[in-house]
Design a protein that fits this description.
This protein is of the alpha+beta class and 262 residues long. The protein is 15% helix and 32% strand. Among the domains are: 54-136, Immunoglobulin-like (Sandwich); 191-254, no CATH class. The termini are far apart.
């Protein structure tokens, strides 16, 4: 009886220790919670600039390129860019506005300092970042069904028509005035040029009846070279006829006269 009581007492004393051992074993047997692996940081996407391209370039043709006329341009290409036009003869460049993605529009009003022509070259630039696309307008600025006035250009100060015609951008020489007769080729058998005028000492071989004594001591010899035959004709005068070397003259029956028609 005492032995049984002793065994029960020992078992009661060892019960808490067994509970502690069991709890400790269960704690060791339970796996530790796993932490979720952290995702590796992703690299930021690299920004790539698209290459610009121009797909279309048009103009609303006008009747005349007068001051105050508005030229409407439209350009189609890569969206998000900056579009600029350059017109030959214009005083400034034209910047277009992107009204819709990829559609750029703008108008140019002709000023008094602009010198635009129907065939003036119009070039376009579409810039996107550091990339540029270019294009040239393939249609004229003026409608082909409208007659154009004569270009009003400034006249040069020179009166030489050869110099005026050779200068770039110069207008042709003006037509002769109504009072001027155009020069025409003519055939004149009695026309010539005075080759020389000589003063000869002595009496005229055939003196005139009224010649004075002073005039009889010398006379004048005029040599004329005819244009058509290239021969010379000599005329003699008791008095100074008043002609000089190089004068254009006519000889008709021994009478010498100036040739006023050149």
């Amino acid at each position: 009886m005492k032995l049984c009581l002793m065994i029960c007492t020992i078992a009661a004393a060892m019960a808490p220790a067994a509970v502690l051992l069991t709890a400790s074993g269960m704690a060791q047997a339970q796996p530790a919670p796993q932490t979720a692996p952290q995702a590796a940081p992703q690299a930021a996407p690299q920004s790539r600039t698209a290459t610009p391209a121009i797909n279309g370039f048009t103009v609303e043709e006008v009747a005349r390129l007068d001051q105050g006329v508005r030229l409407q341009f439209d350009l189609y290409g890569t969206p998000g860019g900056n579009a600029t036009l350059n017109l030959d003869g214009a005083n400034r460049a034209l910047h277009l506005t992107e009204v819709e993605p990829g559609q750029y529009t703008g108008h140019y009003v002709i000023g008094n300092r602009d010198r635009l022509r129907p065939d003036s070259r119009v070039s376009a630039e579409l810039r996107l970042g550091n990339e540029i696309a270019t294009s040239v307008l393939r249609e004229p600025l003026v409608r082909s069904d409208v007659a154009q006035p004569v270009e009003n250009t400034r006249q040069l100060t020179t009166k030489d028509p050869r110099i005026a015609a050779a200068a770039p951008g110069a207008s042709p020489p003006p037509a002769p005035r109504a009072t001027e007769r155009p020069r025409v080729a003519r055939y004149c058998t009695s026309c010539g040029i005075i080759e020389k005028v000589e003063t000869v000492q002595g009496a005229l071989p055939n003196p005139r009846p009224l010649a004075s004594d002073a005039a009889a001591r010398q006379y004048y010899r005029v040599t004329v070279r005819l244009n058509t035959t290239d021969t010379t004709q000599v005329l003699e005068f008791a008095n100074n006829p008043g002609y000089r070397t190089g004068d254009r003259v006519r000889v008709n029956d021994g009478v010498l006269s100036l040739d006023k028609q050149e």
